[in-house]
Amino acid sequence: MTESIPEATRRAVLELLQPLARLLLKAGLGVGDLSALAKVAYVRAACEQGRESGDELQRPNATRIAVVTGLTRVEVAALLKGGDRVAHTDRGRHRAERVLAGWWSDDSFQDSSGVPAVLPLKGRVRSFASLCRRYSGDLRPGAILEELLRAQAVRKLPDGRVEAAPEGEADAMPRFEQALRHGPPHARVDQLEIEHTVPVARDTGFAVK
Question: Which of 9, 25, 39, 56 has its CA 20 to 30 A from that of 98?
Answer without folding.
Answer: 39
